[in-house]
Amino acid sequence: MSKRLKVKPKNEGTLVLDAQGLSLHVDGDEGMRARIEVAQQSGRRVALSALTPLEVRRTGAAAKRLQFLLSRFDVKPVNDAVMDAAATLLDASGLDGHECLVDALVVATAALCTPPVLLVTSDTSHIPALCKAAGDFPGAPTVKIVHV
Predict the structure, then answer these.
(1) Fewer CB atoms inside 10 A, N or C side of the chain?
(2) Which residue, among 7, 82, 77, 16, has the nearest Cα to 44 in the 3D structure?
(3) What SS3 class is residue 20?
(4) Which long-range contacts (CB under 8 A, 24 or more apart) does 71-74 make?
């Protein structure tokens, strides 16, 4: 009797969803579903900040779908490392914490994920500046943007 070796899935980086990416997926957007499926099949982890579901709150059947999807993703806590990274990103980018706090926390979460990191977003103003600032972190994590 031969033993079958279990193949460990390769960790090919991380696909991070911001509120728009998660919202599209919860609402059944086929393009977003396909992006996530391709990412998972290629060994990427799908992750998001613990704050993101608060931005995407739903009721009824959509709330149940949101909870199901969250059970399949890596929901990253907002811990001291993420808060420190977000503060550094805000300082480096010159953006206002009052206006850009959640975006900074999302990018900080992404910057601390396993590279290479793709961040799914519809934001064209704050997120790109914050991602650029993340390149100055130790180890220069590159957070590439996937616009939806």
Answers:
(1) N
(2) 16
(3) helix
(4) 72/46, 73/17, 73/46, 73/47, 73/48, 74/14, 74/45, 74/46, 74/47, 74/48
DSSP readout, 67-131? HHHHHHSEEE---HHHHHHHHHHHHHHT--HHHHHHHHHHHHHHHTSSSSEEEEE--SSHHHHHH
Q: What is the pTM of this model?
A: 0.90
pLDDT, one tens digit per residue, over 80-100 is 999 999 999 999 999 999 999
Separation in Å, CA 89 to CA 50, 100, 105, 112: 18, 10, 9, 12
Is the link from the previous residue into 138 a cis peptide, with omega within 30 of 0?
no
Question: Residue 56 in contact with residue 23, Cβ under 8 Å?
Answer: yes
Helix (H) or strand (E) holding 62: helix 60-72
Q: Which residue has the tokens 């090919």?
A: 12
